[in-house]
Amino acid sequence: MSKHLSSGELALYVDAMRLERAPELPGSIQLHVSRCEQCKKEVLELLELTDTLPYNTEEPHPYFDRVITPPSAAWVTAWRLAAVLALAVGLGAIWYVLDPFGEIRVEPRAESVIEDSARSADEVATSTREPAVSEASTEAGDMAARFVESPNLEDLVGMPLRSGAAASGSPAAGAVLAAPIELTWRTTEAGPFRVSVLDNTDRVVLDTAVASSRVIVQQRLGPGLYYWKVVAGGKLQLVSKFLVDGHRKATGTGP
After folding, report:
1. Torsion angle, CA of 81/84/85/86, rounded to 10 degrees?
2. Which of 60, 111, 125, 206 could be a cystine partner for 65, CB 3.0 to 4.6 Å?
């Protein structure tokens, strides 16, 4: 596993906590979170952020309730044949160990084999390779992943900019909005302005140029965390953020 959990693995852990099915998570994820303070903190923050979101526990979960295909008849036949061969090898080994007088010869490696089988549970958990989290489980945790803060934009929200621009925006950073979304700002720079709206993965969902200090986002945005920035005269004037969640009451209003 990489140094830290991916966004999909973090979202799957949050799903497990909300469904009270954490013991069913892959052992490698459980072990990593128990030892990594950063990932444990991110899980708790995501859990707190999504705690008020509605969660349908009646529908089957793509990862925890996945259907495991039963083995085919051909596979069962092959397994039985392998079992018969293993039994034949075992009987041959017993015949080799026993001499004609019934005495048992103890092989030198027997003791080391017994010692190897007594490894601690922690070593077993560390050395056991768990299957990678499936694409379905990543998609299942997509909702929580949409609210993870952007490492490139979060520190710019509300921070004084090197351009020296004195700017303020509305609505307040972190407001929960619903379409249509009205964004306004005040700045010492004159227009025209270029306004960009980005999701929390820094993907641009809207990019437009306006003469006034007001933009109305007509398109319906999916639930998640969004950032918006204003540029004038080649200088960054403002960076702010808002949330979109159709299930929570909006704290900011449109026109």
Report:
1. 120
2. 60
3-class DSSP state of 156: helix
Give CA–CA dist 46/24, Å, rounded. 19
pLDDT digits (tens, 9 = 90+) for 70-124: 656 666 566 676 776 777 766 666 655 555 545 545 445 544 544 554 454 456 4
> In whole angstroms, how far apart are CA 79 and each of 68, 71, 75, 83?
18, 10, 6, 6
Domains of the chain: 7-66+126-145 (no CATH), 154-244 (2.60.40.1220)
Residue 150 near residue 200, CB atoms below 8 Å = yes
Amino acid at 177: L
Q: Please state, as a whole number, how many other Cβ atoms lie within 10 Å of the Cβ of residue 60.
A: 9
Tally DSSP H helices, then E strands, for the chain: 8, 8
Over residues 131-165, the pLDDT tens digits come to: 555 565 566 577 889 999 999 999 889 777 655 55
CA distance 41 to 45: 6
3-state DSSP assignment of residue 185: strand
Q: How far is CA 47 from CA 17, 141, 143, 226, 250, in A?
A: 8, 12, 12, 19, 20
Confidence of residue 130 (pLDDT cuts 50, 70, 90): low
Q: Nearest to residue 184, comparing CAs of 174, 198, 175, 172?
A: 172
From 57, 13, 48, 47, select the one nearest 33 (Cα to Cα): 13
Name the token pair of 225. Answer: 């965390």
**How far apart (Å, rounded) are the C-alpha atoms in residues 210 and 219?**
17
Tens digit of pLDDT for each residue in 211-220? Answer: 999 999 998 8
